[in-house]
């Protein structure tokens, strides 16, 4: 089962792996042609009703595989308004090859030619809202026609993210959906075929540019609240700085007063709020909870807090009292298995921290990805296990991020990762935020290593993040 939103990421990942969308379109179109063959004999009249996106593009391919049929292809709009290059190329090929193609320029005049089979290729996963004209008129004509309706990917009007079908949507007899089932398709009257279109499973397993596309901030938002510092001062500053570089608007650090000035000294961009004492203690938890609840911050709990008994007790109390979103890192991780919390956690353990939490103890995390998945299922939270390859899992779905470089073993890269997760968690679901953050952190390290080899510093990593997040991670067609 896969949503339309995730499907867009998966085909971007496939393109990055060397399987371009046009190749996928060829496979999609051929799969639809096979479905037409199953419902109608050669010589039958097939009318394709195509939209201006890739859904239509798929059907322009279908036309080429039905030469023994009488195929008419209607485009809802003028050819120059076709929205994607690969759909346009397939339309142009039909024109050059003298296929029977027609542009429908006004919906009022829409006439559906006599057909034994109608191929519904108006809208697929690119839909937004109920059908607009001319698709609405066309859908009415298709539903009224005495023809077998074969829908491309989904019946036009069906939303592959939430399973809703528009009231004025197409009622299909058959649906040929691509790569994987879509939520809600099974509830429709139609019989559904899932067509394999040659997307490598790696496009789902490995984090790629499509995952970064899903979690990339569209604006400047989020005010992560880093609760850290104590024996260490660099970690909270690195996390807070990285959050800003990953799109946060403001970045706060709540730290013991004895190190607050030092942390502020690292960067004028951070807003450091001291609390009494030398370590995080239970008596500070109420105030921290009050602030975190008031501003609904994404919290980063743990960078540099140390392992004092009282500090770990305070970390537990905070999690017990909070129901928002928390990135738990470093020494705070060890309290998670015992704590009851309503908060949404993203845990970011390295190998040792994962083992200490009760997860598998292995150098190659990818080799024990299934065990990490089971551990996350048991823990009830997203786990981003950091290694040469990172394993990101919510206990059901598991992805591997292969980005990164050996130079990133330097201290502090986990702190920047925690900050990136916090910034992306502002507006992306936990698994998506964690997957994209792992990928972006690694790509930033690769970018840095190109200049600094194995000598890169975590403090330089943050500065690489914008280039990776806003252009390097862009899905390449
Ligand atoms: N995911 C894959 O592996 C592949 C998917 N393919 C096909 O691509 C479509 C998705 O194509 P996309 O260009 O993103 O959008 P659509 O063609 O579905 O629709 C966009 C088109 O429709 C217009 N539009 C949007 N909402 C409405 C509305 N409510 N009423 C009327 N018109 C609407 C919008 O303006 C655009 O013009 C996917 O379903 C597959 O069929 C690839 O070809 C192969 C790989
Ligand atoms: K469709």
Automatic annotation (TrEMBL):
<keyword id="KW-0547">Nucleotide-binding</keyword>
<dbReference type="GO" id="GO:0110051">
    <property type="term" value="P:metabolite repair"/>
</dbReference>
<dbReference type="Pfam" id="PF03853">
    <property type="entry name" value="YjeF_N"/>
</dbReference>
<feature type="binding site">
    <location>
        <begin position="124"/>
        <end position="130"/>
    </location>
    <ligand>
        <name>(6S)-NADPHX</name>
    </ligand>
</feature>
<dbReference type="InterPro" id="IPR029056">
    <property type="entry name" value="Ribokinase-like"/>
</dbReference>
<dbReference type="InterPro" id="IPR004443">
    <property type="entry name" value="YjeF_N_dom"/>
</dbReference>
<dbReference type="GO" id="GO:0046496">
    <property type="term" value="P:nicotinamide nucleotide metabolic process"/>
</dbReference>
<feature type="domain" description="YjeF N-terminal">
    <location>
        <begin position="7"/>
        <end position="205"/>
    </location>
</feature>
<comment type="function">
    <text>Catalyzes the epimerization of the S- and R-forms of NAD(P)HX, a damaged form of NAD(P)H that is a result of enzymatic or heat-dependent hydration. This is a prerequisite for the S-specific NAD(P)H-hydrate dehydratase to allow the repair of both epimers of NAD(P)HX.</text>
</comment>
<dbReference type="InterPro" id="IPR000631">
    <property type="entry name" value="CARKD"/>
</dbReference>
<dbReference type="InterPro" id="IPR017953">
    <property type="entry name" value="Carbohydrate_kinase_pred_CS"/>
</dbReference>
<comment type="similarity">
    <text>Belongs to the NnrD/CARKD family.</text>
</comment>
<feature type="binding site">
    <location>
        <position position="415"/>
    </location>
    <ligand>
        <name>(6S)-NADPHX</name>
    </ligand>
</feature>
<keyword id="KW-0456">Lyase</keyword>
<keyword id="KW-0520">NAD</keyword>
<feature type="binding site">
    <location>
        <position position="55"/>
    </location>
    <ligand>
        <name>K(+)</name>
    </ligand>
</feature>
<keyword id="KW-0521">NADP</keyword>
<dbReference type="GO" id="GO:0052855">
    <property type="term" value="F:ADP-dependent NAD(P)H-hydrate dehydratase activity"/>
</dbReference>
<keyword id="KW-0630">Potassium</keyword>
<comment type="similarity">
    <text>Belongs to the NnrE/AIBP family.</text>
</comment>
<keyword id="KW-0067">ATP-binding</keyword>
<dbReference type="Pfam" id="PF01256">
    <property type="entry name" value="Carb_kinase"/>
</dbReference>
<dbReference type="InterPro" id="IPR036652">
    <property type="entry name" value="YjeF_N_dom_sf"/>
</dbReference>
<keyword id="KW-0479">Metal-binding</keyword>
<dbReference type="GO" id="GO:0052856">
    <property type="term" value="F:NAD(P)HX epimerase activity"/>
</dbReference>
<feature type="binding site">
    <location>
        <position position="235"/>
    </location>
    <ligand>
        <name>(6S)-NADPHX</name>
    </ligand>
</feature>
<feature type="binding site">
    <location>
        <position position="304"/>
    </location>
    <ligand>
        <name>(6S)-NADPHX</name>
    </ligand>
</feature>
<comment type="function">
    <text>Bifunctional enzyme that catalyzes the epimerization of the S- and R-forms of NAD(P)HX and the dehydration of the S-form of NAD(P)HX at the expense of ADP, which is converted to AMP. This allows the repair of both epimers of NAD(P)HX, a damaged form of NAD(P)H that is a result of enzymatic or heat-dependent hydration.</text>
</comment>
<dbReference type="GO" id="GO:0046872">
    <property type="term" value="F:metal ion binding"/>
</dbReference>
<dbReference type="InterPro" id="IPR030677">
    <property type="entry name" value="Nnr"/>
</dbReference>
<feature type="binding site">
    <location>
        <position position="120"/>
    </location>
    <ligand>
        <name>K(+)</name>
    </ligand>
</feature>
<feature type="binding site">
    <location>
        <position position="156"/>
    </location>
    <ligand>
        <name>K(+)</name>
    </ligand>
</feature>
<keyword id="KW-0413">Isomerase</keyword>
<feature type="domain" description="YjeF C-terminal">
    <location>
        <begin position="226"/>
        <end position="472"/>
    </location>
</feature>
<feature type="binding site">
    <location>
        <begin position="54"/>
        <end position="58"/>
    </location>
    <ligand>
        <name>(6S)-NADPHX</name>
    </ligand>
</feature>
<comment type="subunit">
    <text>Homotetramer.</text>
</comment>
<dbReference type="GO" id="GO:0005524">
    <property type="term" value="F:ATP binding"/>
</dbReference>
<feature type="binding site">
    <location>
        <position position="414"/>
    </location>
    <ligand>
        <name>AMP</name>
    </ligand>
</feature>
<protein>
    <recommendedName>
        <fullName>Bifunctional NAD(P)H-hydrate repair enzyme</fullName>
        <ecNumber>4.2.1.136</ecNumber>
        <ecNumber>5.1.99.6</ecNumber>
    </recommendedName>
</protein>
<keyword id="KW-0511">Multifunctional enzyme</keyword>
<feature type="binding site">
    <location>
        <position position="153"/>
    </location>
    <ligand>
        <name>(6S)-NADPHX</name>
    </ligand>
</feature>
């Amino acid at each position: 089962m896969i949503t339309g939103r995730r499907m867009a990421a998966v085909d971007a990942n496939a393109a990055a792996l060397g399987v371009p969308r046009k190749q996928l379109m060829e496979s999609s179109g051929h799969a639809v042609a096979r479905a037409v063959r199953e419902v109608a004999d050669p010589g039958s009249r097939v009318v394709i009703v195509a939209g201006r996106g890739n859904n239509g593009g798929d059907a322009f391919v279908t036309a080429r595989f039905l030469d023994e049929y009488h195929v008419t292809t209607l485009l809802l709009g003028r050819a120059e308004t076709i929205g994607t290059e690969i759909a346009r190329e397939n339309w142009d090929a039909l024109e050059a090859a003298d296929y029977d193609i027609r542009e429908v320029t006004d919906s009022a005049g829409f006439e559906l030619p006599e057909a034994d089979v109608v191929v519904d290729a108006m809208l697929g996963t690119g839909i937004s809202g109920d059908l607009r004209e001319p698709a609405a008129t066309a859908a009415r004509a298709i539903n009224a026609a005495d023809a077998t309706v074969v829908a491309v990917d989904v019946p036009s009007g069906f939303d592959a993210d939430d399973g809703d079908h528009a009231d004025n949507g197409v009622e299909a007899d058959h649906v040929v959906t691509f790569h994987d089932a879509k939520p809600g398709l099974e509830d429709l009257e139609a019989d559904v075929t899932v067509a394999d279109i040659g997307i490598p499973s790696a496009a789902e397993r490995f984090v790629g540019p499509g995952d970064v596309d899903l979690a990339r901030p569209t604006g400047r938002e989020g005010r992560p609240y880093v609760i850290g510092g104590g024996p260490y001062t660099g970690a909270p500053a690195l996390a807070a700085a990285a959050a800003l570089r990953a799109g946060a608007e403001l970045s706060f650090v709540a730290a013991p007063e004895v190190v607050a000035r030092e942390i502020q000294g690292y960067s004028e961009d951070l807003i450091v709020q001291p609390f009494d004492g030398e370590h995080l203690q239970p008596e500070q938890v109420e105030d921290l909870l009050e602030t975190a609840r008031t501003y609904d911050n994404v919290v980063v709990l743990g960078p540099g807090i140390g392992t004092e008994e009282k500090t770990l007790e305070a970390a537990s109390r905070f999690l017990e009292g909070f129901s928002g979103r928390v990135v738990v890192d470093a020494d705070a991780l060890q309290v998670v298995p015992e704590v009851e919390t309503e908060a949404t956690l993203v845990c970011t353990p390295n190998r040792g921290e994962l083992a200490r939490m009760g997860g598998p103890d292995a150098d190659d995390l990818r080799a024990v990805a299934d065990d990490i998945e089971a551990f996350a299922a048991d823990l009830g939270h997203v786990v981003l296990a950091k290694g040469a390859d990172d394993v990101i899992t919510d206990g059901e779905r598991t992805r591997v991020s292969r980005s990164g470089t050996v130079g990133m073993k330097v201290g502090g890269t986990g702190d920047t990762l925690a900050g990136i997760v916090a910034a992306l968690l502002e507006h992306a679901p936990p698994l998506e935020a964690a997957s994209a953050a792992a990928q972006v952190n690694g790509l930033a390290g690769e970018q840095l290593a190109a200049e600094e080899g194995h000598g890169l510093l975590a403090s330089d990593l943050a500065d690489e993040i914008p280039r990776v997040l806003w252009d390097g991670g862009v899905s390449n067609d």
